[in-house]
Write a structure and sequence with these properties.
five-stranded mixed sheet, 26% strand, three-stranded antiparallel sheet, globular, 23% helix, single chain, alpha/beta
């Protein structure tokens, strides 16, 4: 099934397509487009401690998804170490980079249907129960159990949040 919501490569599956194909239990909430934690808290009234944000990075030719609690910040040095690259090659992805993996700005998801994408979860995500995360689109949010998400994605687990002990 092709991705929906903007990616130029119709062969890229959206995160929701990947979730549906996996058989993992999840739900999707549709809403006005949001960008960032403040929008999500204000517009969706989601509990901040259940929000799992995903940031997309490029490290040379690699695409990296970093999932962590919404109120946390990514520690670039820790993320670089977790994926085995120098900090100097790590940069935030551009909208065109997101389109290549079936996602839109404001909708980044820890679930990706593109081979070779590296996913890293902050250690604190392991302890979360039900989480709200991106769907690939800015106008949909996925609710899923963190354990199910981790079992599906099989991410690198590392302390990548700036507020985590290092």
């Amino acid at each position: 099934m092709p991705a929906t919501g903007g990616p130029s490569d119709a062969s890229v599956c959206s995160p929701v397509d990947v979730l549906q194909a996996s058989g993992v239990a999840f739900s999707v909430q549709e809403h006005a487009p949001i960008i960032g934690q403040a929008d999500a808290e204000r517009e969706l009234a989601l509990p901040a401690d259940q929000m799992l944000k995903t940031m997309v990075f490029r490290a040379g030719e690699m695409t990296v998804l970093a999932a962590l609690p919404a109120r946390s910040r990514v520690h670039y040095g820790r993320l670089a170490r977790a994926i085995g690259v120098q900090r100097s090659v790590l940069r935030q992805a551009e909208p065109d980079d997101l389109a290549c993996i079936g996602m839109m700005p404001g909708g980044a998801s820890p679930v990706c249907g593109v081979d070779g994408v590296i996913t890293v979860f902050d250690v604190s995500a392991v302890k979360m129960g039900a989480v709200f995360c991106g769907s690939g689109r800015a106008d949909r949010t996925v609710k899923i159990e963190a354990k199910s998400l981790i079992d599906l994605v099989r991410p690198i687990i590392a302390a990548v949040a700036a507020d985590e002990p290092g």
